Amino acid sequence: MRTPGLLVIVLATTTACGVRTRPVAPGEVGVGSIRITGAASVDDDVIIEGLGLTHARETGQPFARFLVGLDRRRVRSFYVRRGFFGVEVESEVERREDRADVTFAIDEGAQARLARVVFEGHPDDVPVDALRARIPIDDGDPFDYERYELAVPDVVSELQAHGYAYARVNGMVIADPARSEAIIRLEVEPGPLARFGQITVDGVPPGLGDAVSARVVMRTGDRYSVKALDDTRAALYQLGRFGLVRVEADRERDEIVNVLVRVEESPRHEVRLGGGVGMDPVAYEVRGRAAYGVAAWPWPLTTARVELRPALVLQRGGDEVAPRVAATATLDRIDLFYPRFGGTAEASFSYLAVEAYTSYGPRARLTARTPTYRRMMQATVGWQLGLVGYRDVSPVLDDATVMQLGLDRTARIGAYEASAVLDLRDDRVAPTRGGYVELRAEQGTEAAGGALTYTRVTPEARGYLPLGPAVLGARARLGALAGDAPAVRRFFAGGANSHRGFPERHLAPFAAGMVDGNAREVPYGGTASLELSTELRFPLPDLPYLPPLGGAAFLDGADVTESWGAMAIGRLHWASGLGLRLPTPIGPVRLDVGYRLNRVEPGEPQAGQRFAFHLSVGEAF
């Protein structure tokens, strides 16, 4: 049971110790200690908090024997609602000089199991299995009144989803204390089969009429469906143009349901400012973000945005500051050629200082994306063309490596790209169950305007499994790069969202040497990458004055090599560690500490360094 703060902790303590919050008048007998015995399935404090005697003690009221009888019935009702039909509750009062101590002795008995669910009067065109699936208690599971009562409206929603707009469901529970069984009996009154009548749309700004119409799911004459109403509301919000969407069904007539869709345009101009800090064993990073967007400009179906992302990276123990700047202008169209198919035109310039070099140059990019199929699947195709120049090449890299990486010349990179995503997670920020699969491919070719021919493929899979209050997550990510591999497309591992036994980008092929009398290790990336991660996320006990904290235990394995032939899957770099999570609206603030388990000898990346720590925002995956 979670305690929201110090006040609740104090109240629970005074309850258990028999300390009155407010004293009774002189000469009166007050309520003393309240004890529970025999409560095996419920915490004693949960029961005590709901008793009338507890309220009387905290407000300084004198002891009244009738409260004992009322509380005895309260305790029995509390248990019956949780399926303990044969529970027995006895009470004992011990009088002292100025107080009366009360003990409730509970014999819980066995918790009833759900024997079956019986439906009567349901229409033939609604499958019984669909109605039964709305009751989240399987046959043979412990029965609970609250779960049953919360499920009855869901049964009504299932009937409405099949067109029965006026359906009613009356339920009752047949309890059998002798057998410790419960039978749920639901009587269905479906009412007439309803259909949509007139669909009215109001408040649509000029130029968005076709886009809105394409997202109104129901049509006149269609069978009534609550899902159609919900899908319409969700689709209109996803359009990104409306601050308020109301979809109201008029169900005053028996068989015809008219619908009014009313939308209110959200502000067209948007400014975003933000920033953050990052930290790992080799560097500090400060990031900033400034963005401005205007909707319905220059055309009604487009949104224009400009964004600047500056960052500064300071190497620990040094005075070198590496700047990183990305400036982007995008034009996003809501419906490209067909409704719900989107498109984006982007122009950007980046200046990125990393360990081996500084890269800079412009890039143009065009992408088209499909609608999100059933809110789970989406595909994207695109084209990009850019120039990448290099400067400040590390003197640790020899001439042969510089030529191999192409750091001695400007690269013209033209490529076609495609991606496919299947997202089955229950939540994108803090998932607790489900899975995620992504495949990204990039083909550099002269046909796309480039001077380099290469293929880059990066598949990834994630899975999440709830284990009581904890969540077990796993991720596998591959990377393969073949052909005239540009330096800026090479793979690196390490960091808060990768292998947490290494600093960011430091698990990769590297060059080592001396610079100004100091030993330097300069990673320059590989063409083959494999990352495996497993993480157990769990809540931590509540502490006074602190928000709820979470913990994590993880195991990361990875390697980045010059080729797949050099990849030894049985000999990856492994690290285990622990982490803390502080929940925020934008995701958890995360502190992870990783400990390398193997491959720390000379010749390995970050040789001799066992520990790595990472401070970041958002889950690792």
Give your account of this protein's structure.
The chain is mainly beta. It has 4 domains: 6-107, membrane protein fhac (Ubiquitin-like (UB roll)); 113-189, Ubiquitin-like (UB roll), CATH 3.10.20; 195-265, Ubiquitin-like (UB roll) (Roll), CATH 3.10.20; 354-617, Porin (Beta Barrel). It has helices at 6-17, 44-49, 52-58, 65-80, 128-132, 145-161, 209-215, 226-238, 399-405, and strands at 30-37, 88-95, 99-107, 113-120, 168-176, 181-189, 195-202, 242-250, 256-265, 269-280, 283-295, 302-315, 321-333, 342-353, 358-369, 377-391, 411-423, 434-444, 454-467, 470-483, 510-515, 518-523, 528-539, 550-561, 573-582, 589-596, 611-617. A hairpin with a 2-residue loop joins β21 and β22 (518-523). The chain starts with 5 loop residues before the first helix and ends with a strand.
User: Strand sequence of the main sheet, in spatial order?
Assistant: 10-11-12-13-14-15-16-17-18-19-20-23-24-25-26-27
CATH topology of the largest domain: Porin
Query: What's the average pLDDT?
Result: 90
Shape: globular
Oligomeric state of shown chains: single chain
Task: Count helical runs.
Answer: 9
Helix/strand class: mainly beta
Q: How many β-strand runs?
A: 27
Unreliable residue runs: 1-20
**Any idea of the CATH class of the largest domain?**
Mainly Beta
CATH superfamily of the largest domain: membrane protein fhac: a member of the omp85/tpsb transporter family
The number of domains is 4
* Major beta sheet summary: 16 strands, antiparallel
